[in-house]
Write a structure and sequence with these properties.
- The protein is of the alpha+beta class and about 170 residues long.
- The protein is built from seven helices and eight strands.
- The protein has a three-stranded antiparallel beta sheet, with no helix packed on it. Strands 6-8-7 form a three-stranded antiparallel beta sheet.
- Strand 7 and strand 8 form a beta hairpin.
Length: about 170
């Protein structure tokens, strides 16, 4: 890396613990080194640090994909096998398996060697050509929905049933 900023020509400072605010998965923090310009705020990030960021992003995506799965029915509602994706996109299963683009633009997870594709992401991909959706917002909505359901259940359980009197 250069000692001077590409944008303003100011001296760069070597820093560690790189942080990136990703619009899809939120805040990503790694222990990688990078250079920062105190004058204009530009960061020069080496390849090794970006590889760490990419690994952290992939792990966070998998974590967020599973955030609101509570049962097999939730999984079936949220994910689809490759033959359903092929039918939705109008391509063959082999084309999906060989495509790196689809693997990067449609969220997917692998369970016991079988790849499943996120239904909402696939539908968006078909419409726009990019299936990446903000997973952080979807997970927050799912968590709030679960909290509301739990509160509703608790309030039902806490209601006192009227005690019958001998004259009733």
């Amino acid at each position: 890396m250069n000692d001077k900023c590409f944008d303003c020509g100011h001296e760069l400072e070597l820093r560690s613990n790189y942080t990136l605010d990703d619009p899809v998965v939120g805040l990503i923090e790694t222990d990688g080194e990078y250079c920062h310009c105190p004058n204009c705020g530009t960061d020069e990030v080496p390849y090794e640090t970006m590889c760490k960021v990419d690994d952290a992003r992939k792990a966070r995506i998998q974590e967020l994909l599973w955030a609101d799965i509570r049962s097999g029915n939730d999984f079936d509602r949220k994910f689809m096998p490759v033959h359903e994706l092929a039918e939705l996109l109008g391509v063959t299963r082999q084309a999906i398996d060989k495509s790196r683009t689809l693997g990067n633009l449609i969220y997917n997870t692998t369970i016991m060697g079988i790849r499943y594709w996120m239904r909402e992401s696939a539908i968006k991909f078909k419409a726009t050509g990019d299936g990446r959706i903000p997973l952080l917002k979807a997970a927050a909505i799912a968590q709030e929905s679960n909290r509301t359901n739990q509160r509703h259940t608790r309030s039902k359980n806490n209601r006192a049933t009227p005690v019958l009197q001998p004259g009733d």
